[in-house]
Amino acid sequence: MEKFTSITSVAAPMALINIDTDMIIPKQFLKTIKRTGLGKNLFHEMRYDLNEKEIPDFILNQAPYRNAKILIARDNFGCGSSREHAPWALNDFGIHAIIAPSFADIFFNNCFKNSILPIILPHDQVDDLLELAKDENNNVTIDLVKQEVRAANKIYKFKVDPFRKHCLIEGLDDIGLTLQKEMQITNFETRNRQVTPWLYENN
Known about the structure:
Number of strands: 7
Largest sheet: 7 strands, mixed
Radius of gyration: 20 Å
Structural class: alpha/beta
Shape: globular
Number of domains: 2
Strand order of the largest sheet: 4-3-2-1-5-6-7
CATH topology of the largest domain: Aconitase, domain 4
Number of helices: 8
Mean pLDDT: 91
Distance between the termini: 32 Å
CATH class of the largest domain: Alpha Beta
């Protein structure tokens, strides 16, 4: 998993509540089990018309927001079904942080497993950032180490679970965490073969 310490980017404002996982990645794109290639289908029904042409008014079809690494939205981001393809699509598009007043629990947890930082801020601070983001010259910096969002000479502090912060900074997903214990696992298996050899007779 890609390491996350800090990013500076234009932030794409999507001042909508209840952006659900079907809006993020519609069900027809869920056949793949690969984490790559879904970025082109992110917000598909909002980005493209029936002829698969880009809708100019959609924020991620506009320069410079089509290169945004940060998304700002309103309440209950990521609600709906628990599809992990949603953070896959966001990550593949290039979104590495989302700022909102609240998130759906399963989506929130899936973000950390896919190198995306979901940041919860109070409504008034999100409103400030949404307004700032309308100016395409206002870059936003997210510093995970200091737990700060910085924009237009303002600093917004955010909270994050220490263990999840560690995993993002070190680039550790569930597999990476397990591989950190590879030596202990190997030693256990070696000892266990000696103590209970019958368990391994067919291996």
